[in-house]
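Researcher: Let's do a round of design. I'm pasting the structure tokens now; please hold your answer until I've finished.
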């Protein structure tokens, strides 16, 4: 026990277990401090799961920055939690995360997701701009309307109103990786169908083809033919 407690910094109801490369929350943390801890800092570990939080029934603040938490993140119900920081993890699906938080953290007022792909900002994604980030804020506030502070900025009344009006439509939808890989491979793997005759499909020996076509273009609605009578076509 003494060896385990050496990993922990205790200050009243504030517990810190930082930078010990923990892959899971140690059982002794919940057994020893879970019944009275109000603030828990587990930053700079290698956490992939927060299942060990079930013993922290009185938790109000949770800091789990710089870990390996992904889209399968599951929190126990924490009715008193008002502050949650998940900076620099591996979160990519913002909608899944927000719906989960809405269910298990009803008192949440402060949320920070900086450094995750789910939070589009130029620190992580150079191709993103302020408009992308603002749309993200509207979507988060649509899902969690009780938030008072998001990332590094206080939530404004204008943002709340905009989130209520349009937040549901602000989600950024990314193409699936499979679709991208198929698109990228389309050049090396041509489609099985081609409208060209068989003899003209070889790009190395391409030649023009003259033949009858069953489709007739009358040009009645062509802008280029607006001064030509139909009987002249």
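Researcher: That's everything. Go ahead.
Model: Designed sequence:
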């Amino acid at each position: 026990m003494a060896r385990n407690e050496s990993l922990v910094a205790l200050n009243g109801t504030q517990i810190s277990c930082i930078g010990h490369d923990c892959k899971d929350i140690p059982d002794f943390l919940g057994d020893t401090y879970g019944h009275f801890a109000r603030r828990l800092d587990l930053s700079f570990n290698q956490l992939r799961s927060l299942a060990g939080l079930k013993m922290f029934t009185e938790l109000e603040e949770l800091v789990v920055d710089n870990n390996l938490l992904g889209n399968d993140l599951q929190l126990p119900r924490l009715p008193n939690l008002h502050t949650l920081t998940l900076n620099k993890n591996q979160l990519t699906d913002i909608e899944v995360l927000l719906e989960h938080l809405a269910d298990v953290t009803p008192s949440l007022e402060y949320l920070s997701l900086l450094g995750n792909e789910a939070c589009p900002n130029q620190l992580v994604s150079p191709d993103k701009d302020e408009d992308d980030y603002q749309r993200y804020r509207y979507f988060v506030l649509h899902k969690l309307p009780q938030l008072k502070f998001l990332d590094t900025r206080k939530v404004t009344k204008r943002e709340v109103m905009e989130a209520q009006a349009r937040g549901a439509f602000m989600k950024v939808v990314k193409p699936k990786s499979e679709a991208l890989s198929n698109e990228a491979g389309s050049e090396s793997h041509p489609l099985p169908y081609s409208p060209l005759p068989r003899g003209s499909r070889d790009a190395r020996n391409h030649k023009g083809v003259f033949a009858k076509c069953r489709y007739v273009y009358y040009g009645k609605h062509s802008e280029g033919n607006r001064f030509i009578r139909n009987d002249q076509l």
